[in-house]
């Protein structure tokens, strides 16, 4: 009887490998039923079947169904092998990875810590599985802007991988990329550039010139040069990255949109606004097609298009893009999210520039209110809002209020990174 389950399960895997999703789903569901019927609900083959069903749903874009299947796989493994088993740890990592894909970092973090403890107990703290979980935890801290927490984790990952893998392995390059990102935002540009160049060398040696991981690394190195005012150095890297991404991923992939975005930033830095508008327009079109018109992924393009129009004195066009960006964040994250506050700030800064002081004050005070009442990490962005408010009140002749904000600025440490109009990343 086991042979029959293995046959069905194997077919599901083969269909998924060749992107025959409907056939894979049919056989994955059949494998679940067959395993439960033959072996009973509490059997490792049932857990394997639920895992494979989750993978099929994930590839089909049904993340909610994928999560349900992965959770059932975890429940079976915990019942059969125990909650601290290696099998349970693997299932927890699957669930956490799905959480990361859908932006649920708060759910992913405790799952990864449970998995880390289980792997440390069953396999020890020096293996590939332990390093994988550490890497994901470090990614969460990086996404939260907790660089001091993320850096030692990435360094630990690098130490483990360096001991168990060849020096030219792409996983080592991935850790170097993340460390470079941390060094970039914490004011160590020379170290960041060195690490990105080392990662590029590893990818070239291990994966070849046309691999999307190399394209991503070159895009990151190009972003570094854009952010340090070297668009000419960034240009060949961006062209290579775009070419590789289009060939490997297709012209409508979001990574291609990111390449167009950065080409747009490059043209802006080189004083070529028409070319910049063209590239940002391409990026926006790809992102709208890939994610829809109300997804936060499109806001980078909207903000960059607004920045170019603003710099050209076309305030009405800039306002239209910024209002749309703000509406996307309000719909996606709610009216009290830090990204919504930044949207209000961007509008306020535009109104200040165009002399619409009353509207600027309203938008900026909305931004301040959200950030002051939100999480501590969001409050770090208050410095930018206070600077703009101080400038506004100075122009309005309200010197006492301007001085008040100027005094408050000195009490706040400048944030390492803030999503701004026209940013490269």
Structure characterization notes:
The chain is mainly α and 425 residues long. Helices cover 79% and strands 0% of the residues. It has helices at 2-17, 21-39, 44-59, 63-81, 86-101, 105-122, 128-143, 147-164, 170-185, 189-207, 212-227, 231-249, 254-269, 273-291, 299-311, 315-333, 338-353, 357-373, 376-379, 382-395, 399-409. Helix 3 (44-59) runs antiparallel to helix 4 and helix 15 (299-311) runs antiparallel to helix 16 (315-333). The protein is globular and about 80 Å long.
Provide the descriptors you would attach to this structure in a database record.
disordered C terminus; 425 residues; mainly alpha
Sequence-ordered SSE layout with sheet pairings:
Blueprint: H1 2-17, H2 21-39, H3 44-59, H4 63-81, H5 86-101, H6 105-122, H7 128-143, H8 147-164, H9 170-185, H10 189-207, H11 212-227, H12 231-249, H13 254-269, H14 273-291, H15 299-311, H16 315-333, H17 338-353, H18 357-373, H19 376-379, H20 382-395, H21 399-409
Helix pairs in contact: 1-2, 1-3, 2-3, 3-4, 4-5, 5-6, 6-7, 7-8, 8-9, 9-10, 9-11, 10-11, 11-12, 11-13, 12-13, 13-14, 13-15, 14-15, 15-16, 16-17, 17-18, 18-20, 20-21
